[in-house]
Specification:
five-stranded parallel beta sheet; 3 domains; 10 helices; FAD/NAD(P)-binding domain; alpha/beta; Enolase-like, domain 1; about 25% helix
Length: about 400
C-alpha cells in the first residue's frame, strides 16, 4: 500500500468522472486515478444519438468537465484499459503495463452494445452507437446513405431513427414488438411513438424480427424473418447493452446482471463500489436490486459512490429518471414501472400532451410527462410517496398534481 490513500476509479464515463469529482469534493485528499479505455476526456452519451449525431453540436460539448478540470483537482486521467483487478493486494493492472495500487475503488465500467448474432452482421456499413467515434462514423454514413435501417425500437434505436429522418435520410425501423419502446412503456404508450415515427416518414416494420443482413462486402439489405427484404446501405443495430462485468467477475466480486452492490453502492468486497450501467444495486424504495442504463443514474450513482469511497455512508435512494427528445416530442420519466402495471393517462395521447402513470395495487410506480413541462418534481413526489391513489384522480386534470403526493 502507498503511504497516502489512493482511490482508483475504473471506467471514465459519466459515472466515473462524477465519482472522482465527488470524492475530491467530499474531502478525499489522497491520490485519485481515473482510468478509461477511450482516448480523451470523459463525456456524456445522450447527445450522441441526438445533437452530436445530427452535427448540430460539436462533440466537445458532451464533455463532463471543462478542459483543465482534472489537473486542477489533482485527478490523474489515464487513457488505458484495465486488464486485471487483484482485490487481495488491491492492485489494478493496465494493458499498457502499468499497475496501480489502491485502497478504495469505484468500478464504473459501463456497458457494451449487444452484437447482432446473425449472418451478415460483420459487413461494412453495420453500425453500433456507444462512443463519440461511433457517432462521427454514423453521422458521415447517414449523410451519404440511400436508406438507413435501424434494428431495434428501444431508446437508442428510436432516437437514431428520429435523428436520421431529421438529417433527411430515408429510414426503416425494425422491431419484433408491435410498438417501439414496448418493454418500458407498454403497448398503449408505445403506440404514441409508433404514430410519431410514422407521421415523420419512417417506414415501420414492427412485429417481425431479422433473419440476416445481405451484401457482398458492404451491407445492401436487411432480410426480415417473414422473408421480406428491406434495401439499406447503412444499418444501425440498437438491441440493448450488456453490463461490462468481466473485470469484476474475474476479481471474485458477486455479479448477476451487473456488479451486485448494496444501498451504499458497496460491492461484495468492502471498500469497492460500483456505479452506472454496470451496477446492479439494492434500491430501498423498490426493495430489490435495479440496474438502470440512463444518464441520471450514472450521474447520481457516480456521486454517491465517490463520496462513499471517500469515507461517507450515503444511501443511494434516488428514483430512476430519464428523458428523450424525438422530433417535436420531449418526455421525462421517473420511477420504475413493470410490464404488469396498469396505466392511467391524464391528457390527450392524440395531441401528444399528457402525463402517464404506471400503478400497481393503487400505488404509482412510475410516471412520464410528454410535452407537459415543469411537473417532474410533482411526479417524483407522487412516486416517492407510495401512497394508495384513486386512478380516477390520476386522470382528472382538475385535480392538481400536488394534491396527489
Amino acid at each position: 500500500m502507498t503511504s497516502s490513500p489512493t482511490l482508483a476509479v475504473i471506467g471514465a464515463g459519466l459515472a466515473g468522472a462524477k465519482a472522482a469529482e465527488a470524492a475530491r469534493e467530499a474531502g478525499f485528499d489522497g491520490r485519485i486515478v481515473l482510468v478509461g479505455d477511450e482516448p480523451g476526456a470523459p463525456y456524456e452519451r445522450p447527445p450522441l444519438s441526438k445533437a452530436v449525431l445530427r452535427g448540430e453540436k460539436d462533440p466537445d460539448t458532451a464533455h463532463v468537465h471543462p478542459v483543465g478540470f482534472y489537473a486542477a483537482h489533482d485527478i490523474e486521467l489515464i487513457n488505458d484499459h484495465a486488464e486485471h483487478l487483484d482485490l487481495g493486494v488491491r492492485r489494478v493492472e493496465l494493458a499498457g503495463g502499468a499497475g496501480i495500487d489502491f485502497d478504495t475503488a469505484v468500478l464504473a465500467t459501463g456497458a457494451a452494445p449487444r452484437r447482432l448474432p446473425l449472418p451478415g452482421a460483420d459487413l461494412d456499413g453495420v453500425h453500433y452507437l456507444r462512443t463519440i467515434a461511433d457517432a462521427a462514423r454514423l453521422r458521415d454514413a447517414i449523410r451519404g446513405a440511400s436508406r438507413v435501417a435501424v434494428i431495434g425500437g428501444g431508446w437508442i434505436g428510436s432516437e437514431v431513427a428520429a435523428s436520421a429522418r431529421q438529417m433527411g435520410a430515408r429510414v426503416v425501423l425494425v422491431d419484433p414488438a408491435p410498438v417501439p419502446l414496448q418493454r418500458v412503456l407498454g403497448d398503449r404508450i408505445g403506440g404514441v411513438f409508433r404514430d410519431l415515427h410514422a407521421e415523420h416518414g419512417v417506414d415501420l416494420r414492427l412485429g417481425v424480427g431479422v433473419a440476416q443482413l445481405r451484401g457482398t462486402e458492404t451491407v445492401e439489405a436487411v432480410v426480415l424473418a417473414d422473408g421480406r427484404v428491406e434495401v439499406a446501405d447503412v444499418v444501425v443495430v440498437g438491441v440493448g447493452v450488456t453490463p461490462r462485468t468481466e473485470l469484476a467477475e474475474a476479481a471474485g466480486l458477486r455479479v448477476d446482471n451487473g456488479i451486485l452492490a448494496d444501498e451504499h453502492l458497496e460491492t461484495s468486497v468492502a471498500g469497492v463500489y460500483a456505479a452506472g450501467d454496470a451496477a446492479n444495486a439494492w434500491h430501498p424504495h423498490y426493495g430489490r436490486n435495479l440496474r438502470v442504463e440512463h444518464w441520471a443514474n450514472a450521474l447520481n450513482q457516480g456521486i454517491t459512490a465517490g463520496r462513499n469511497a471517500a469515507g461517507n455512508r450515503d444511501i443511494y435512494a434516488r428514483l430512476p429518471y430519464f428523458f428523450s427528445d424525438q422530433y417535436d416530442l420531449g418526455m421525462e420519466y421517473v420511477g420504475y414501472g413493470d410490464a404488469g402495471d396498469h396505466v392511467t393517462v391524464r391528457g390527450d395521447l392524440a395531441t401528444r400532451e399528457f402525463v402517464a402513470f404506471w400503478h400497481r395495487d393503487g400505488v404509482v410506480t412510475a410516471a412520464m410527462n410528454v410535452n407537459t413541462w415543469d411537473v417532474v418534481d410533482d411526479l417524483r413526489a407522487i412516486v416517492a410517496a407510495r401512497a394508495p391513489t384513486d386512478p380516477t384522480r390520476l386522470a382528472d386534470r382538475d385535480v392538481p398534481l400536488g394534491e396527489l403526493r
